[in-house]
Each structure stands twice: as C-alpha cells, then as structure tokens.
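Possible race condition, two jobs.
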Amino acid sequence: MTENELVKESFEDLLESLRKDTPKEDIQKIKKAFEFADAAHEGVRRRSGEPYIMHPLAVAKIATKEIGLGTTSVISALLHDVVEDTDYTVEDISALFGPKVAAIVDGLTKISGVMGSDSSKQAESFRKMILTLADDVRVILIKIADRLHNMRTLESMPEYKQVKIASETLYIYAPLAHRMGLHAIKTELEDLSMKYEHPEEYQVIAVKIAAYENQFSELFEAFIRPIRQKLSDSGYEYTITARTKSVYSVWLKMQRRNISFDEIYDLLAVRIVFKPKEGQPEKWQCWNIYSLITDVYKPKPERIRDWVSVPKANGYEALHLTVMGPEGHWFEVQIRSHRMDEVAEKGLAAHWKYKDKSDGENSELDQWLAGIKEMLDRSDTTALEFLDEFKLNLFTKEIRVFTPKGYMRTLPKGATALDFAYDIHTEIGNSCIGAKVNHRLEPMSHKLSSGDQVEILTSEKQQPQREWLNFVVTAKARTHINAAFKKERREWMRKGISLYESIVKDLGLPPTAETLNKVLFHYHINNRDDLYMELGKGVITQEELAKILKRRPENKFIKYWNLQFLWNGKEGDDKKKFQTEKMANADLEYSIAPCCNPIPGDDVVGMNIAGTKVAVHKRSCPEAIRLMSSFGDKIVPVKWVSYKLMSFLAVIKIKGIDSSGIVGEITSLISVKEEVTMRLVHFEVYDGIFEGTIHLYVHHTHDLNRILIQLSELKGVESVVRVENDEK
C-alpha cells in the first residue's frame, strides 16, 4: 500500500468513526480541514518515518471515537499543529474555519510546543495549558487525545525522551484524564507510562494477568450463568463482560501494600450494562439488579459502592458490589445503564451530552472547574506550586459532607474540618478556630468522614497558622494559607533588605555578592531571601550582623589545619573510618536519594535540579516522578558501575507463624552471606504471629533477591518484602 493510499484509508476510517447523525455539511467541513492540513504538512515526517498527517488524523479519531467530541473538535484536532509547524496563522484558520476552531487551535498552539520541548519547564508550561480551561475545555480534551497518540507511538523516541514523556504523562495527564471522566484513556495512559518507566515489571505482570484470564475463564462462565438466568427472567436487555485490573493498577497495589501478585484477590471485575426499561428510574433498576444478584451470591457489605445516588465529581455513576462466587472466589460486580456506561468511558463529553437529563448532577464537575480557575487567578503562586496544588485537586477518592443547612460538599478523602472551612469561603478558613461535627465540638484538624454534618466556628482574632499546613489536604486550603504567609514574608523581607543595606553602608563595605556570601556562609543560609527574612524578624540582630561583616577573611592555611585537626584519629577507629569515607565521597557527582534509597540493580534515574550533584532515585519513586514531570530537562541518564566497592542500605520486612528458634534461623541464614551485613534486627511476636524488620547493607539487588528467596522458603515464613523509609 502506498503512502497516499494509507493516508486516504486513515481519513475514511475517521469519517466512519463520526457520530451517525453528523450532517453532510459538517462532513464537508471535515474534508476541507483534512485537505488543508495534508497540504500544510506535505513532505514532513514523524520520527517513526510515516507522513506527519497521520498524527492529526489519529488525534481526530481519538477525539470523536474515544472521547465522543463533535465536528468542531475533529476539525480542530486535524489542524492542531498547523499554526505551530507551518507559516499559517490563527487569523488564517479563523478566516477559513471560523472563530471557534481558531480559538481551540490557538489554545493548542500555545501549549503543544512548550509541553514537549527539550528545554521546557514543564510546570510553567502546564500552567499555561490549564489557563485554556477558562476559554474552552475542548482544548484540554484534544490535548489528552494528542498525548494518548504520542504515548501509543513512543517507541520511536530515544530512551531519555521516553522516560521524560512517560513521567509527565503519569504525573499529570493520567490524573487529568481521570478527572475529566475518561476512564479508558486514563487506564491506557497509566499502562503505557509503566511500559516505558518499568519495562521488565510491566512484562512480568502482563504475562501473569493473561495467565489469570485463561485460568479463570471457566470460573467466570460458571459465575455469570445464574445471573444471566435471573436478568433474562426479569426482562432486562443487557451485556455482561469480564475485565481484569490494568497492569499499572495491579503494580501500584503491589507497591503500596507490599504484597505479591497472588495476594490480589479482586483482579477480576464483572460489568453488567443494561438497557433501562421505560417508566422506571435508572437508579431503581440498578438496585433491582443488585437484589437479583444477591439472591444468588452473598455480598460483602463493606465493599458496596453507591455512585448512582451520589455520582463522583467527574460524573461517574455505577453501583459496585463484591460477592462470594463459586469455589470461594470474590467477584466485583459493576452495574451500569447504557447512559452511565457511556459517561464512564467517554467522560466529560458524554456527561455534558446528558446534562439536561441529569437534574443538575454535573454541578460537582462545574465546581471543580471553577476551583481551578480560582487557583489560576492567584498571581502570587509560582508555576511549580501551582502544579503541585493542581495535582492535589486531581484526587481519586472522595467524601461527601454536609453544611448545617443540609447542602452537600465534595472533598478528598482525608480532608479536615479546616479544609471544609476553606471550601466554603477563604475568610471562613482564615478565621476558623474549630468545628462542630455532627453537633460535637472537634478541633480544626479533625478528619471528616462521608455523611458528616459540619458547622465551622470562627473568630475575628484568628489568623492563619503555619502548622495548619501539616494537616490540610486540599489545594484550595494550602493555596490560601501559603498566600497569607507570603504576604507576611514579603513584609519581613522588605524590612530585612532595608536593614542590611543600611548596615553595609554604615560600615563602608561594597554591596557585592562577596559581602553577602560572607554572612550566608556564617549562618549556613542557602539564599539571600532567607537572610533578609531572618534579619527583618529580628532573629539575626543588627549588632550580630555588623560584627560578622567586620571580621577579616579566614586564612586558608588555618582552615586546612583545622580540618586536619578534626580528623586526627583521637575519636576511635569507627568514627575515623566513617569520616574518611565521608571525605572520600565529598567530591562525587552523585548522591543517593533518601526518599527511596536505591541500591545497585534497581531501575534508577538521575535528577540534576540544583546544578551540582545528581540525585539518584528509583524510577518508581513518587518524588522522582514528580521531579521528572516538572523538570524534564534536568533528567540525567545513570547506571550502576563498580558496585562491589560500596554497600547500600536495604530494609526488609518479614512475617510468619512464630515457632521456637525461627528468629535464630533467619539471622543465621543472613549472617553466613559474605556479601550482606546486618545493621539492625527487630522482631515482635503477638498472638502466635511474628513480624520482623531487618536493615541490611548489600552490594546489589541480586544479593538482596537471593536473601529474600531463601528466607521465603523457611518453614513458617509467610511473606518477605523489601520496603523503603522504614521508621524503626
């Protein structure tokens, strides 16, 4: 097939994916947009070698088929790279295709270049992208479609770009797709990101899931047989499908709970999608089907999720239950109508399609968009702060609480009374002194639960406190608390600058960086702003500052002699050894990140944020993912070499059935390993079960994995896992 035939076939495929009721004149507009884009991108190729026009065609197809957008969005998707990559302007687009298309293309043009460029500051770029929410949310939906196609074709990119784009996708685009209600796209973005971030783990879990599906296909058929009979007897038109958890969600659960693949019991979900009967509310029919299923199988009461009475903030509606099926296996069952299923899969576009029929239940989504716009209006928020605060707003688990008058508010799980206060109004949050939760007096740090009725108590004398940041969880609360301190900080800094300049002038010293660095070095302060702050608050007095500035520079020979004196060997061999190692490592260009504590053999990435040492993180480290998505240009490819020269700390947790001598067996097994050294051993026993934590120094993950396998084979040991950041 020639390239022209391939392009033509792709365009025909796009036309077939349009809504069936698309008018002929709209189809003509789409053809016109395709011909225009094809001519504009003529001769240009993607990195994969295919004609560039294949990318806009693919994005347009995702926009209509997988998101459910209409003609204007399809035309905009076809043209989304024209202004950026060719000599055509937004004015040209407006003249040919109208102001709406031009506005969307303009929004996409402003963000597409910066989000993908090598030298971009992703945080600032993302802020620019979200600004377009205020104009037309279709810009974001098309951008998600654009990112999805780029992720599907990421194999043609070099590895360092794959890591950067995958991290950015996992940190921002997947949660954003979730928030827009695009469940299928969110799941695919997560899986594709993991495929490039953790290729080996991805393959292992994917193979296990495929094997699980084959193993339980007969069990699934046995499970749904009586359900089919019940539904058919009740006159329902329906489909029943089985869906396993995605690779990423399985991996995430294994990481968070420190469990193996075999310990995940809810791998399989059964989805029932029914056609509603006329004259009966969908909600009632969902509960009727629930009743039919529980006539056959016993439910697990604490696993019922009712999102038909109160939909999620992204519009998701369904009734979930978990029942005990054949052979002692738990099955999760999802019950949806056709409308609910379309909203669940296509999200925002489908949700607004049914807006007039949903009795205003989309107000939660509108409130979320309004909250984002409010964050954007705060000009004193840095781009990176905005990115982190926005990420907080992409929460996945929610609670519903009520005002004293019975109005419902949606908050993230873990939200406190103070979060609720700021959700009501900024001034109520700033003046909050406590709350009455279900008519009982509680502190502002009290964590709320679904169904709580909350009355906020305020005082005119109250002011935001810095410790509030330790327990609030919503972006809105953090934004307003930080804003109060920024105002105070600016005032202290202004005073500090004035005092510093006055003292330097009185002493007749030059106002140079050398003079300032002398003070910063003395107080071990990293930047001038912190110095001005301390000076303005009076922590550093004017008299102290004047004394420091009057001092003569220290002789370098004396400084060297002092350093030698500190390490004269009088403090014992262990101390001397430790400090010698510290001196030897002081000039290395890397440091091991304490947040994830990687060891040789771990899949790692380097981040050179400060411009000095490269911090080495595990690629799965949440902090590394955040940094890679925010500072894509600071990623440094790293790999382990000469690992036998050094030992690295690893922590393992072990659990099992207590028996005489079990602790001795465990420690004896480890102690005979020459490549492993125990640093700390801690065991506790309760009700016949033991739990232990062991800190080891190892050279490589190979050494650690051998230990884990051998420990797991000991009689009585139930689980052995490696953990990070253990508190003991």
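Job #2 (started ~2 s after job #1):
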Amino acid sequence: MMDSQENAPVISPSEETGNNEVLKEEVAAQPAETPVAQTASPVETEEVQPQKVYETKAEILERVREIAHTDESPQKEEIDYLKTAFYKLHIAEREAKIKAFVDAGGDPEQYQISPDEQEEAFKAEMGIIKEKRAKIFKEQEAEKQENLTKKLAIIDKIKAMITTPEEANKSYQEFKALQQQWREIKNVPAEKANELWRNYQLYVEQFYDMLRLNSIARDEDFKKNLEAKTRLCEIAENLANEDDIISAFHQLQKLHQEYRELGPVAKEQREEIWNRFKAASTVINKRHQQHFEGIRAKEEENLARKTELCEKVEAIAAEENKGSGDWEKHTKQIIELQTEWKTIGFAPQKMNVKIFERFRAACDDFFGRKAEYFKGLKESFKENAEKKRALIEKAKALQDSTEWKSTSDKLIALQKEWKTIGMVPKKLGDQLWEEFLGACNKFFEARKAAGAGQHSDEYDNLAKKREVIEKIKAAAEQAGDDIQEKVQKLVEEYNAIGHVPFKEKDKIYEEYHAVLDKLYKELNITVAKRRLNNFKQNLKQVAERGENALDNERARLFRQYEAIKQEVQTYENNLGFLNVSSKKGNSLIDEMNRKVQKLKDDMNLVREKIKAIDAENKE
C-alpha cells in the first residue's frame, strides 16, 4: 500500500533557508511549491503491475499459493484479478463438460456436477490470503499510529529548540538529525497527514528563521539540494516515456515524497526548479487521467453490450417452445450469446456483478425449463417405446400366417397405429422400426411368393383391356349409325375383364375413360346436329297438320326442356354428396358427369328446335 500521506493532497515544503546569514524576510519571500501529483483513488493505491494472462486454473492456483505462503504482501487488485480469472476458466470448463454430455445424447437433468479439487484448494488459499490481508492491515494501522506519535515527538523537540534562539546554532546538527528521522518515518493516518505536515513545516521554518549560519555552509546546502532536485526532475521527465502509465504515476508519487523532504535551493533558482518539476508532473498526471477515462469509457461500452445480450437472452427465454426442435434452436442461440459474452471485458465495478447475475438468471431460467421439458419428454419416450414394442410382438405373431387377406388387413392396421404413436430417441426408434418392419416384410414377402401365379393372370387382363380401348378408338373413327350400340358392347366387354396389376390400375383406368369421354362428346355433338337438321326439314309437314300444330309442338318441346333441366339439377345435387376417396367412388362420379353432359346436350338440342319453330312462325 502507498504511504497514507500519498492518499492526501500533496503539499510542497517551503524552501528552507540554509545558514545564519539568511534573514527571516528571505524565507517569507520564497514561492509556495505545491506539487500537482494527483491523489490516487482507493483502487489505485496499490502498486499496479501489468496483468499476466493465465491459461489454466493450475497456474492461478500456483500464484495464489505463492502469495498465501510467502512473505509477499497481497495486493488487492491482483487478488481480485486472480479470483475473476479463476472463475472465468472454471465456469467455461463446467459449461464445456455439460455441452459435451448433452451432445453425446445425455439428459441435461441427469448431469451431475462433480467436486472440483482445484476450486476447493483455491477457496482454502484465498481464505489464508484474506486473513493475511486483515493482519497486515491491522499491523499497518498500528504502525501508522506509532509513526504519528514519533513525528509529534519530533515536532515537540523542534518547537522546544525555537524557544532558545541563543542555542539555535549549537542545536543545528540535532535539528538536521531530527529532519532525517522525520524522513525515515513513513505512514501516518491519512486524516492526520496534512495537519501534521503543516505543523512540522511551520516549526522548521521558524527554526531556520533563527539560524545565523555562514554563507559558505548555506551555499553548500543550497547546492546539494539543487543537485538532488535536478535529479528528481530528470527522473520525472523520463517517466513520460514509460509505457505503463500506472507504474509511472506511482513512481511520480514517490518522487514527490522525496522532493518535499529535500531542503531549499538558492532563492533565484527556486521558482525555476519547481516549475520544471511541476511541468514533468503535469505530463504524467494528464496521461494518468486519460488512461482511466479510457478505461471508464470502455467499461461503459462493455456494460451497454452486456445489457443488450441480457435483453436478447431474456427475449429468447420468453419465446414459446413447441417441441424439441424449438428447444434445440433456442439453446444454440443462447450458447452463441454466452460465447459472445466471454469476449466482452469488465463493466463498471458497481454494475459488473449485477449485469452478470442478470445474464446468468435468464440463462438459468431457460435451461431449467428445458431440463423439465426433457424430463417429461423422457417419460413420454418410455411410454411410446413400450407401445411400439407391443405392436412388434403383435406383428411377429402374424408374420408366419398364410391367411393372406385377413392378415394383410391386420398388419396394415398395425402400421397405421404405429404412425399414431409419438417419438422415441432416434437410435432406439430406428432399432424398433427395423424390428417391426422385419416382421411385416416377412409376411408380405411370403404372400408375394404365393401370389406369383395370380400376377400372370392380371397382366393378361391388362392386355385385354388395352385391346378393348383400341377397338373403341377404331369405332370412333368409323362413326356409323350403329356407333352407340358398338360402343356399349365394348364397354360391357371391358367391364367383364378381371383385375389388372395394382401398379397399372390407375394408368389403364385414366386411359380408358379419356378415350370414352372424347368419344361420347363427339358422338353427342354429331347426333344432335343430325337430329336438328331432320327436325327443321319436317317442320313444313307439321305445319300442314293444322293451324295450332306448330304451337302444340313448341309446348311439348318446352315441357321436355323443363323436365331435362330438372333432371340435370337432381344429378348435380347428388354429385355434391358423393365421396371420391376411393377409385370406385371416382368411377361413379365420372359416369354421372357423362350423363349430366348428355342431358345438357339434349337440352341444347330442344332449345334449338324451339328456336326453329319460332323462326317458322315468323315466316
């Protein structure tokens, strides 16, 4: 720790008069020298060394043991740094172990934090250091009180010398010895330092006022003091080149302590030497101030960045997790934020612990709820695995059956039920699925082998149906008067053919109906035109039957039109209730759609006949 006088404002001694020829007026005319070395803050009172970067907890523990078990005085700043560095490595190591455990498929809830021997040893050594610091502090305080008593005694002795002016020259050597004793006595209580120094300086000046030294002794004294102060100026000026500004600042404090303990110089040189020393001090003080302003600015920036990370983690923790995927996605995001956190330096001392506790609380909340979720999920996995094992046993009981139809239905039902069961861990799920699929495949492969002959008949049926389709295409190209009868017979022939291979069923179905639909459409248009032309040619004959014959025919056609229209509406309503989920249902809908289209074509034909009657009536 620094001298307690260094913690108080530094006051320069007035220059001493050196011999019995210097008058009291000369002493009074000396310039006041007030060193400008700034008062160190409580956290800057210890000698600061460049902080070593520790790579392992073992290195930190070794340094802590060295401090605890040697005569080295533990410095608060280094102790705080060692503690922060140790737990930074300790937390990173623990999080890496947890991540490795989870990545290996472990349940976060089941992870056990094992005791850390290094941490226990670290705590024990830190306890010794704490006791050591407390003891040193107590000893320092006692020493300061003892030093205060000694310095008060020196002041009393100088004060007594002043009361006997005639003995001043004789007591000069004793006075110089008291000054040397004063310099050798160091720390006193900070609250007493300034007052103590002022009293000492007051009586020293009064003693010099009484001195009547000869000019040779005075000049020699001034010369020695000037040399010493010049040396201090040079040292202070060289401190401007010191890379470590903290070290430079503390060295400057010691220089000021030495400067104030030195005696005066010649009157004409006093202001010059003091201004030189003060100028060198100003350079160091300014750099020191800028250094800590930079640290404080950086700490504020770090606090802002850490606050932003806290807000991000809190936002992620507040999001809803609908499943394991969400939990894993958010876990990855939070781990990335934790990694970024480790790259950010310290926040201001008052907020450093608070902001870390806020960040840690948000992380702990998320990972605590995640652990609860996966604990419940584990129970669900266990239940789902038991259900799947039960289905496996049922499938194995059916795998050797030769009742092809009923067993196929049962196994298909088991497969559908399998899909309704929830998840299990991937590795176990793959294993259970392979076991279940093996039992199913064993049955279906046996059924396939038994039905090989049946497949041959199905391919024959496929060839027959394609032959019928080609006949329908040929009939469409001829388009004779008996086309409808031919097509109807071909349709009946097609429907009488048995099953085709399952993989070809949809393809042949679509091909057949595409040809049939095209034929019916063309057939309806052709027949409708022929009928309308025949109707128009016969209108003359209808008109010759009587005056109202055309009107009666028109009324009959109108009734026919309304009846067809009603029938179309009925079909369309029924189509809305049909289920098309099966091929059979789809076939029925296609057939009804063809009927509806034919009825609409008939309606158009009737409408055209009515228009033809209206045109005939106008003529």
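The longest helix spans residues 267-318.
Logs attached separately.
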